[in-house]
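Following up on my earlier thread - several people asked me to post the actual chain instead of describing it. Fair enough. Here it is, all 736 residues.
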Amino acid sequence: MLINWKSRWNNLDKPVLKSRPTEVTYFKLNNELNRPVDGKIPLNKDREAVRAYFLEHVNPNTVFFYSLEEKINYLVDNDFIEREFIEKYPMEFIKELISSTYKMKFRFKSFMSAFKFYTQYALRTNDGARYLERYEDRIAFCALFLADGDQELAVRLRDEMISQRYQPATPTFLNSGRKRRGELVSCFLIQISDDMNSIGRAINSALQLSRIGGGVGVNLSNLRAAGDPIKKIENASSGVVPVMKLLEDSFSYSNQLGQRNGAGAVYLNVFHPDIVSFLSTKKENADEKVRVKTLSLGVVVPDKFYELAAKDEPMYLFSPYDVERIYGRPFAYVDITQEYDNLVNNPEIRKSKISARDLENEISKLQQESGYPYIVNIDTANRANPIDGTITMSNLCSEILQVQRPSHINNRQEFEVLGTDISCNLGSTNIPNMIESPDFASSVETAVRALTYVTDHSNIEAVPTVKHGNDLAHTIGLGGMGLHTLFAINQMEYGSPESVELTEAYFYALNYYTLVASNKIAKERGKSFDNFENSKYATGEYFDAYIQAPFQVTSDKVAAIMSKVALPTADDWRALKEQVAAHGLYHQNRLAIAPTGSISYVNETSASLHPITRLIEERQEKKTGKTYYPAPMLSNETLPYYKSAYDTDMRKVIDVYAAAQKHIDQGMSLTLFMRSELPEGMYEWKEGRTNKMTTRDLNILRHYAWKKGIKSIYYVRTFTENNDEVGSNECESCSI
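Reply from S.P.:
Thanks for posting it. Predicted structure:
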């Protein structure tokens, strides 16, 4: 039982500080990074800024406790930390775990890393003035919470997180163990059926999910188009745009107590008749009646569109109302590529004709102007999908690609058929640190178990379809960050053949060991994800390609870098196939590459899999002005290999992502980085033409990505001649 120490804490809310530095120097020191000395970046100033930050700010504003037991009891008794998970462990074990974590002597290497942690993650007193946690404390509480009473797992989780090999997503890292907390997940996908009951239910779901801090992706493809009949009355439907406006208003209204706006993305199939008006809502000169300012747009693109655009042929847009009436299933669940000719030739289906090439150019124009729309290559995603069912959409960051089942709602707003929607349960491996793990397989298993706890304890009752989908699927999304850092410290150019091979080697291994972990958990629990028996895992089909042609490293340099990771052989895959057939898999989905947002700063590594944008990144903080962040592990040795994404051929970025995508069952948040004035000689098709970025450039790159097997494209970020970035806004809800 916990001891009541309250009598000792009466004056804790207003302590008398014996000393406080009179001068704040850490911002000044950090800002000196942007002022070269003798043509060199003064990296020592950033290290000085870290030290000054702790001496001048963190240490004087951290609450002091006489003992770990006193600290833990105070946090529990004052509703900072949950009592329930603490009481699953002996106090001596908790004290030993935290004490040994301190002894590991973790140190932040950059000012931005420390600043991000203490600004966004550290537990504070109720008035927000002082810190109740160190980084080590947050790690320990996360480990204890996610281990759910398993002492051995708690130690393993602590080791992985303090070594920065594994990092939970922001909502998990922030909220684990806290008494007054939000949800452990913050990203959701919902779909709408073509009826008013479903639309009403979706609006309510958007409100509820936004209220708890969620970013929400919404599929509009099933809704009838403007001019379609309602109850056989012609031209009665208003189409998707009014629903978009309702959703935008919902996200704006439900704004997490004013702390930040809700965030939502809407997806529409490119063959939907409202596609042009859908895209027009994001144009700067759009009429205010239809313009959406905060809603993100995504376009679902079947293979047929690329084929028609490449041949400069007309394309037909099909009435979703008629398609569903004739095919007996919602529009999003019909394979447009396969059925295209049948749809064209069916006189019962209303259709309209436009130029595929013109529509392609409109998409590119909008990407230049706003960074939108996201692109989901839906046929690519479904071809690679080992799960029985259909992928129809993605999320706010375009990396989640899972099957969904439609619902049917009656006039009483009751579910006659409860379908499945999606919650995103994310975490990330820090790739440079992960490959140095003393036991890669164990590190991966530990990460999978942490994510499993989150999926098992996510209970979004306000949206029954999301809860139902999560309960059945147990999905997780383990990703990676720090890929460019890995290349730089090993003196590899981003996009070189060696870097592509290294990328594939890592995700090949990650795929295998997450499957091993999922199979082990299924065996322990005697339970697989719903409908496992109809998956390509159960039939063994998924494993056959790996057994017949397992990945093999050809580069000596890549082999040396990956030397601590046992890459699976054909025999390993064969044995895994047998184990999965016998015991199943616990998780329907396992891997997804999310944008890593602020957490990559805390982990002191490059974000996600894409190249860095600047050697010294400039961040505009709301209250403190500018802060600067040098590229991780920047030195004379790594500097030549830290080329900006804006100066990199995007085909190289696509090649790297495509190598990873081969082994990732979901998607990746692939961002394209462009300049309004493209570097001379980068793209051979620009020879003899203007170096200004054009729609043609983006068209070519999207087709290249599609041919390389890329499932989705996130933002297109454009660096303008005025040093502004278009399309650079970040999803706070979904970013890890």
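The domain at 189-352+372-379+388-422 is CATH 3.20.70.20 (Anaerobic Ribonucleotide-triphosphate Reductase Large Chain). That should answer part of your original question.
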